[in-house]
Design brief:
By secondary structure, the protein is mainly alpha-helical. It has one domain. It has seven helices and four strands, in the order ββββααααααα. The protein has helices at 35-53, 63-82, 91-107, 126-148, 166-178, 180-212, 214-259, and strands at residues 2-3, 6-7, 25-26, 29-30. A two-stranded antiparallel sheet has the order 1-2. The longest helix is centred in the C-terminal third of the chain and has 46 residues, at 214-259.
């Protein structure tokens, strides 16, 4: 958004209704189909196509099948390392979670602006990352209580804790456990938001310096553009790392539910 020569770096995060659904409501609640929902659907569709295309079961795997098998093996090894053999049943969920976040992060980095489209990264909204975190946390709670019953509360009393210290340690450990979904969702949200703001600010430097004078365009504008290229490459790395961290922490939390360490 450019107002009076100024580019608003926060406009890219605005959630806007699409296809004339502005006033679409159900039970008094607005259910407009937004740009955020569009990219969620896009990420889910791309993930579905990716998985379906890799299920050919060819004796000599092609690149597509090899890619799906690689990511599946990666998630399998992640769960084996953090949960053990009991973690294999979570492969479909963790694979879907990891790939969904990864695709969401990458879709938001596509240079669609060159064709007049506005890319949207829904993982830059805490409402989206928070829901993903709550989903993982809910599975941890369900598995923990289903498998261990009220003995699950022993997770909040570290082994070897002196009896007089339990009333103090228990609430601290419980609070630490309960903030996990908040920190899990916040980490992804902050990382994606910060990078996109920085790219937008640098883009503003490029545009405004070029509009100001040819000299500023060649100096400040060129330097900002080169920096944008480097930051974009870094953002691609961050997109992968954040998806990995989300999956890794989810597997660690699942380990607590399965094995009560």
């Amino acid at each position: 958004m450019n107002v009076a020569g100024k580019i608003d770096p926060m406009h890219q995060f605005a959630i806007e209704p699409l296809f004339g659904t502005d006033h679409l409501a159900l039970g008094g609640f607005n259910i407009a189909f937004t740009n955020s929902a569009l990219y969620m659907v896009a990420a889910a569709v791309v993930l579905w196509i990716f998985v379906i295309g890799g299920m050919k079961r060819e004796l000599v795997p092609g690149r597509w099948q090899a890619s799906v098998e690689y990511f599946t093996s990666f998630i399998n090894n992640l769960l084996l390392a953090n949960v053990g053999e009991n973690g294999k049943k979570y492969i479909p969920y963790l694979f879907s979670l990891f790939m969904f976040i990864l695709l969401a992060n990458f879709l938001g980095l596509l240079p669609l602006g060159v064709i007049g489209l506005h890319p949207f990264t829904f993982t830059s909204h805490f409402t989206a990352t928070g829901v993903l975190a709550i989903m993982s946390f809910s599975i941890v709670l369900i598995v923990g209580f289903w498998k261990h019953g009220f003995h699950f509360f022993s997770l909040f009393v570290p082994h070897g804790t002196p009896l007089p210290m339990i009333p103090f340690i228990f609430p601290i450990e419980l609070i630490s456990f309960m903030v996990r979904p908040f920190s899990l969702g916040l980490r992804l949200f902050v990382a994606m938001t910060a990078g996109h703001i920085l790219l937008k600010v640098l883009a503003g430097f490029v545009i405004n310096s070029a509009n100001a004078s040819p000299l500023l365009g060649l100096t400040i504008g060129s330097a900002s553009f080169i920096l944008m290229v480097g930051i974009s490459a870094l953002e691609m790395l961050v997109a992968v790392i954040q998806a990995y961290v989300f999956a890794l922490l989810t597997s660690v939390y699942l380990n607590d539910a399965e094995n009560l360490h």
